[in-house]
Amino acid sequence: MLVWPIGRIIVYGEELNRLKEADLYRFLRRVESEQGPHVMINGKPYILLAGNNYLGLADHPKVREAAIEAIHRYGVGSGASRLISGNMALHEELETRLAHFKGTEAALIFSTGYMANLALLSCLIPEDGLILLDRLCHASLIDGARLSGRPYRVYGHKDLNKLERLLQRKPQGQSALIVTDGVFSMDGDIAPLPQLISLARQYGAQVLVDDAHATGVLGIHGRGTLEHFGVSPSEDSVIQMGTLGKAIGTFGAYVAGSHDLIEYLINKARTFIYTTALPPAVCAATAAALDLIEKEPELRVRLWKNRTHFHEGLHSLGFDTLQSETPILPILISDSHKALKLAEALFDEGIFAPAIRPPTVPKGTSRIRMTVMATHAKADLDRALEVLGKTGKALGLI
């Protein structure tokens, strides 16, 4: 039996016990169905209010058909990285579609949003450049800044005064990158993008917008945060990235910008260079999903109608949804133990919406993060509100 010297490694069992005692332990629940407004767990139906499949495209028949057709024609895997033999027609066609959709000269697809953000934060500015991040940026952006080796600073959530002070303190001529989510994934509020762009212009900086939860959701055509604010996609100081696994319903990520930016990333982004290309079926399914987003705006209309109804219902019950402006609707509980209790009570009543706890959110801000979909029926949302009212009162939360 191999015995490790004490103090040289983490004792897994002890750390797991510590997490359980602090109500921070996590475990996996197996979903046994497609990712729709309802899912099957342990053979029982649940109303899903926890996913990011905002438009219901993850299980849309046309998206499924496109994936199946691509498998018949191209097989399952791409077989190599894009710079070896893995670059296929479907990759290039999808990038052209994404660039058109986002209104940019070009686009580049990545395997995940995490990998795209790691690439961007290590490539966009020189080693002595400064990265400035909103405190509530996604973990991949925070990790990307740490791993980049560049100096970075964090400003308070949407605190433009603090951000400007940081910009004022940087040495003359130092490159700076302002980093923000378009829609903040745990709070559901929207970044003050026009003001960020104004500060970037004033201090010679660039802006990186993670549009993961805005793509397909914000803007009259669903093109994201820039369209929501009427900002031109040709704005030189703004670089857009986003994911394909949320409103688009598939898998992967993209960066959209100038031809020069995309060529630069192809040559410099290690998370692009050294990874196998996305499977052909994913590319075909994504193109089909983009067709639906562009041709069926009623999906987005239903999404926002559902969001309005559910948001009003939560407020009428007395829940605090923070400053949410989107289909992400957090119910602030604060205490991790109480958040777990509410999630368990909801699950017992057929509502799947897990508790979100540190380190995903700051200490003292545990919550139930609820997300509505275009494909939720009003009856689904009304049932969830009924259960929330009953369980919230029973637990003394409202």
What key attributes describe this structure?
3-stranded mixed beta sheet; 7-stranded mixed beta sheet; Aspartate Aminotransferase, domain 2; 43% helix; Aspartate Aminotransferase, domain 1; globular; alpha/beta; 398 residues; 2 domains
| Mean pLDDT reading | 95
The SS-based structural class is alpha/beta
What count of structural domains?
2
Shape: globular
SSE pattern, N- to C-terminal: HEEHHHEHEHEHEHEHEEHHHHEHEEEH
Spatially, the strands of the biggest sheet line up as 3-9-8-7-6-4-5
* Spatial separation of the terminal alpha carbons: 54 Å
Give the helix tally.
15
Q: CATH homologous superfamily of the largest domain, by name?
A: Type I PLP-dependent aspartate aminotransferase-like (Major domain)
**Roughly what percent helix?**
40-55%
The CATH class designation of the largest domain is: Alpha Beta
Q: From the coordinates shown, what is the CATH architecture of the largest domain?
A: 3-Layer(aba) Sandwich
Number of beta-strand segments: 13
Question: Which regions contain 5 or more consecutive residues with pLDDT less than 50?
Answer: none
Rg over C-alpha atoms, rounded to the nearest angstrom: 22 Å
Please state roughly what percent of the residues sit in beta strands, choosing from under 5%, 5-15%, 15-25%, 25-35%, 35-45% or over 45%: 15-25%
Instruction: Summarize the main sheet.
Output: 7 strands, mixed
What is the third-level CATH name, the topology of the largest domain? Aspartate Aminotransferase, domain 2
